[in-house]
Request: fold
Amino acid sequence: MQKAEGISETKEREKIHTPEESTEMLRYLVQNCATKDDLENLKGELEGKIDGLARRLGGVEEKVERLDEKMGGVEEKVEGLAEKMVTKEDLKKVIGETKHELMDHTTRECAKVRGDLTAIAHRQDEKANEFIRTAQKSGTISKADGVRLITINPFAQPMD
Reply:
């Protein structure tokens, strides 16, 4: 059976076309197929376009290279900035430390001033006490007034 089927397929392929059919096929080929000249013209057009694209790509490559150079400089600057920058946490820490140092310094300076003022007040109190004693001895003020004045000074002293 297979042999008979194979023979009928071969006959089908070998079918002879009429002159009209052959003419129609030739017309179709002439209208729709490219000739060697068409292909040569197309090749020339494509080569011209490819050359134009190659020139444009060369220009783009140059621009990309210049951008790469510029970006390298920017990248270096950004890296330099990143090394110099501090975070908010770092800044808060430094501000906190500075604040404590400033407060400690202020406290020490206030203690010094307080000590100086106390020493000045002591000297003034001693002068006032001496003046009161002198006034008592000369009789300008009574002994009771002298005692009362000496006991109201900032650094009250017992009377002799």
